[in-house]
Design a protein that fits this description.
This protein is α/β, with parallel strands linked by helices. It contains 9 helices and 8 strands.
Length: 198
């Protein structure tokens, strides 16, 4: 895989997702993007504060933005694949304009549209750097994680300080090992109840 991401270790998305969930202690909301992003979130352990995208490619970050605006005292994390984010790049400018201090966007970048057949994304084909795009959109707290230790450091900082924050992780192509239950009504209801509770 050829990308423009400098000095970054290829990491495992499922392992990093478990690291994210393991750090949640204050009923943080997590929005899992379609496909592997939400399958790994499901595999890391269901929480009512998790919202699983079962379709609607590219909407994890915009939905997380809405939750962050509606719940300013709650940290909100979006787990989004590179291919999905490319469907809604404009959301980066909107996030920068709204400046939700409680929003964290984690970008999983493996350079392919994995669940549709492994076609190369612009990151693979043209060296497109999604963190550079985030910075150019006005998101100054945007950084690639060089390895798992730095991923933990960036996530800890994002959970402890005002954002918005964007964390990019270069990931492998391992397919999701879990399948989220296909019950969107139940997830919507449980997530709504969790967001109403303080």
């Amino acid at each position: 895989m050829t990308t423009a991401i400098p000095n970054t270790q290829v990491m495992n998305r499922a392992a990093l997702t478990k690291r994210v969930v393991g750090k949640l202690t204050n009923r943080e909301a997590v929005i899992g993007g379609i496909g592997n992003s939400n399958w790994d979130l499901w595999g890391a352990g269901h929480r009512d504060e998790n919202f699983y995208m079962l379709g609607s490619m590219g909407l994890a970050a915009p939905i997380a933005l809405g939750v962050a605006i509606a719940q300013p005292e709650r940290k909100v994390i979006a787990l989004e694949g590179d291919g999905s984010l490319l469907m809604q790049l404009g959301c980066l400018s909107t996030i920068a304009a709204r400046k939700p201090a409680n929003l964290i966007l984690v970008i999983w970048d493996n350079g392919i549209y994995q669940i549709t057949g492994g076609q190369g994304t612009p990151a693979q084909l043209a060296g497109t750097d999604l963190i550079a795009i985030a910075r150019a959109s006005g998101l100054t707290n945007a950084q690639w994680a060089a390895d798992e230790a730095e991923f933990d450091q960036l996530l800890d900082a994002a959970l402890a300080t005002p954002g918005p924050h964007v964390i990019g992780a270069r990931i492998d192509n391992e397919p999701g090992r879990n399948q989220t239950d296909r019950d969107p009504v139940r997830f919507a209801q449980s997530f709504s109840r969790a967001m109403a509770a303080r």
